[in-house]
Amino acid sequence: MPTFNSQTLLQQLQGDVSSLLNVLHTRIMPQPHAALLSQPAPGGWSVIQCLDHLNSYGLYYLPQLEAALGKGEQLGLPAKPAFKSGWFGNYFTNMMQPRPDGALKSKMNAPKGHRPVPQPAAAQVLDEFAAQQQRLLQLLQRAGQTDIGRLRVPTSLTRLIKLSAGDTFRFLIAHEQRHMLQALRALLAATGNNHTAVSMQHLADV
């Protein structure tokens, strides 16, 4: 399993989240809600549905991460210079992480509890997503002060599988990147543009 410099990894993840917020504020929020609620094809998710799906994961994982970091702070667990990914954590992250060209390594159906409704409240979803990303940035900053390899977080699939806090951050942010690219494709389709030419570069150069 890969080993990372802990601080470098956390800084990279903070940069990834900041890029997602930049996409939200510069590409998505200026658009009319009608475009954001437009589905690219029957059964396809709109921009707002993609973000609503991500919000449902944030509602579970952000409190879990906060509790784990709080435990590390309470126990006085010092940060370690190196973080080694676990088997499950690395597998889930790689499964979610889009390729550089935006292609997905695997397709999957969203669990029942994380499927968005057909017409979510656009303003509420946008505000919630922005707030969750700010909270995620704060948690990443706190994570630099404790042992992200030792602290454990139960997955939303089953509490029997627990990931390290470091892998939970990696998985959660890779999942966000995956669906933000999906949201950008839906937006391009809604505005009459080529919705297939979306790569990871679109999450960096906005």
UniProtKB/TrEMBL annotation:
InterPro entries: DinB-like (IPR024775), DinB/YfiT-like (IPR034660). It comes from the Bacteria. Residues 27-183 form the DinB-like domain. This is DinB family protein. Pfam families: DinB_2. It comes from Chitinophaga alhagiae.
